[in-house]
What does this fold into?
Amino acid sequence: MPRFSYVEGGPTADLTVEARGSTLAEAFEGAALAVFNAMTPLEGVEERETRRVEAQGDDLGGLLYNFLDELLYLHEIELLVFSGIDVSLDEERLRLTAECRGEHFDPRRHESGIVVKAVTFHQMRIERDEEGWLIRVVLDT
It folds into this structure.
């Protein structure tokens, strides 16, 4: 199961996220869920609609950036927030497909969190350690 946290000491006026997973796909899921949890608590988001998201990159950092950027685009255009994300990752070809489940943000039902404007490459880390995979990404807020 993916896990995420918000890290102190990152760039001012930005949000630094760390996500962990036993697989790289789980860590990507955790990073994506952290983005939406910052916008509104995930426990208040029902899985009413599904969107399929595809991304590719020249390296793992580019793949992560493009994936999160596509999710932010869906949020901006359709006001979707996702609380369930399943990533299928092809590490060799640097491509992923994600099934994202959530609903339209409703200010009457959902608590407003921070506005995430963009994903950055600043201080981005994707590495494997003894616990699995660790992702660190800074979000422009």
In short: The domain at 3-140 is CATH 3.55.10.10 (Archease, Possible Chaperone; Chain: A; domain 1). Strands lie at 3-7, 14-21, 49-56, 80-90, 95-104, 118-119, 125-129, 132-140.
